[in-house]
Amino acid sequence: MQYYAAPMEGLTDRVWRQAQxxxxxxxxxxxxxxxxxxxxxxxxxxxxxxxxxxxxAANPGAPVIPQLLAxxxxxxxxxxxxLRALGYTEVNLNLGCPSGTxxxxxxGSGMLRDPAVLDAFLDAVFSHAEGxxxxxxxxxxxxxxxFAAILDIYDRYPICELTIHPRVMRQLYRxxxxxxxxxxxxxxxxxxxxxxGDVTTPEELHALATQFPQxxxxxxxxxFIADPALLRRARGGTGASREELRGYLDDLYHGYTELFGSxxxxxxxxxxxxxxxxxxxxxxEKLEKQLRKAREPWEYEVYHAGKKMANxxxxxxxxxxxPADSFLREQPGTxxxxxxxxxxxHLQDVRRRNSPSCPHPPINKKLRRPCTGSGAEKAxxxxx
Length: 384
Description:
384 residues, alpha/beta, TIM Barrel, 2 domains, 42% helix, globular
């Protein structure tokens, strides 16, 4: 069974793709990585900064499949030609994004509202573009019953692979993926089919492969961000180690700092990753609140959130459902985080942070930030 990494805006970019492959090895690598969608410019002038995401030199390793979000078929065909010139063979069409800002423009799953418009779009694309073109879709706008008419249109074109996320547009990501509707539609598909939706554990991957052996692949999204070692575990390998998670998170943070030219922007992107990571272990509510409050790079770095939470993640993967702190206390040789203070600037008890026994930098009472330099002790009103 082929495993694919889903395109997720703001998450599965080149920084993440490289960090995930580096730290979790060949066994943890997807067969394909679908890049977050790219919209072709109406003036047909490519923006260098956006195209850098798909530069072949920036995407070594497993194959990357670019994805297009468009409603003009001829414009999409032109963009496919530009991507072919970069060396990409397959290009994916996004007909599944449920975001309101996307669907309001008639793009993504918004195109599923009108089968005639969908048919005209695909006709223009396949009439003007050459090479393999795949499609990612939903079942419809408001009801899975709409998919029969939509599938009739897909079957008219030489789609190299159809990825089906069995939800409708109006669901967004609420509720459960409708696997019964997927099972009903699968026999009517004339092209290879990939499943996508609510796959978060190795057991679910194996169950899908057993239930639908005719699938060409299984695409995982949120589950892959929450557990970057998911595919390695599915292939019989180990879960993420403490060292791997530390290196992975550090590479993400520093990679985003370099990409954006701003550590502040990197902190915002890291929060998006932690939104999924942090829910992989129990007893993390307090740490989640601390992470949300971080606004500046120094706050994130003082917390050492990546390293601290990496320890917690490790034990959650080994024994799901147990309180995170209990794992830290039970593992021999694993340091327990200091209970006398939290390593952040928003302490309610500044004096406790500034006590001689605290290992963290003193806090400047006026600026509410760690003291640095030769005047640190004076600024923090504490002698060390």
